[in-house]
Description:
Blueprint: E1 10-13, H1 28-42, H2 46-68, H3 73-89, H4 94-107, H5 114-127, E2 130-138, H6 139-148, E3 155-164, E4 167-172, H7 179-190, E5 197-201, H8 207-212, E6 215-218, H9 224-234, H10 242-253
Parallel strand pairs: 1-2, 1-5, 2-3, 5-6
Antiparallel strand pairs: 3-4
Helix pairs in contact: 1-2, 1-3, 2-3, 4-6, 5-10
Amino acid sequence: MGASGGMLRMIVCDWNGTLFRPALDGTYFIGLCRRAFFRAVWRGDVRKAARLTATGVRCFGRYCAAKARPDHAVRHVARVVELLNPDVFSGLRREELAAYTRRYARAIGPRLDRRLLAPIARAVARTGIETAVISAAYHGAIEAALDEAGQPFDRVLANDFHMDGEATARFELAVGENKAELLAGLLAERGLDADEVMYVGDSPPDETCMRAVGLPVVSFYATRAHKRRFAETCGAFVPASSEEFERHVLAAADA
């Protein structure tokens, strides 16, 4: 769409590469993998430690492949989850998971992009627009990080752990290549027209969402190639600064 015909009523953001600067050492899964490995070593479970090492190498390969081909990133994430579910994600106690998530949220605070978050918070305070995140990342980590930053969003649509009583059974991917469908469902639920919605993203998995709304925006962390691509194909706005982004948001909210 590319040009809004109505007043802005909701801002929807991607997470990795948009509100959060991605890096291998900052991923939620890495800490859980380290925890599982060192626990196996401490218990003297050499076979499991070796198995986790081999799994880690394969997951790193998938990470590199996803970096090289962002359009296939969701598929690589799905394979990583398959690899990690048996030995890393299964059997975590609920309180252990919650404690780790809180520590993770505090640790990644500096990686949150205040160039987007601060203007969004001011726009919400001024106009009352709604906010949402749609992401293939972990729901609990996103909510915890935004809460820790003092900038919670109204809705977070993301992946989560399936629990078996008080322990995790597996990590489930309910959000992946279906982000456009989830966005459409969110708009229908809130009674919003696409022209009243801004979507902020950074990479090919966000393109269908950018095409679906009236106000597509490319994040600061997006590559130059993706900024150019989305500006040309989706009519997306590419802010040069936080101030420019804020002016864009307020102009749309006050339309």
